[in-house]
Design a protein that fits this description.
The chain has 1 helix and 7 strands, in the order αβββββββ. By secondary structure, the chain is mainly beta.
Length: about 120
């Protein structure tokens, strides 16, 4: 595929491979961050928790603020095994989490949402 005029043509390529709409992107997520959903917990049809992976994909380290669209009740960094990590600070500001990511860093979060 050729991405003339696209800022990041790899996003469009991945969307095509996943058979998702080209405009498919999570609102509230900075353009340099990719989000993967590793696991989710629901109660009465509502999302109450999720394990989320964040990848800084553009080589720009710094603070990353993500608006999840609903109140965050807990947020912690975890290892691949699900154990807590002590080397990452995560702030909760209403529906947002704020973390610092290094260039190309991947960070897994355990999030809880107001039910």
């Amino acid at each position: 595929a050729v991405g003339i005029g696209l800022e990041r043509p790899w996003d469009a390529s991945l969307a095509l491979l996943a058979e998702a709409p080209l405009a498919c992107r999570m609102p509230g997520v900075p353009a340099n961050v990719r989000v993967t959903i590793l696991d989710s917990v629901t109660a009465d049809g509502r999302l109450t928790g999720a394990r989320i992976g964040l990848l800084e994909a553009a080589g720009r380290s710094g603070e990353v603020r993500i608006d999840w669209g609903r109140a965050v009740t807990r947020a912690g960094a975890i290892t691949l095994d699900g154990d807590p990590r002590q080397d990452a600070d995560i702030a909760i500001e209403g529906p947002c989490t704020v973390v610092s990511l290094d260039r190309y860093q991947w960070l897994q979060l355990d999030l809880g949402f107001a039910g």
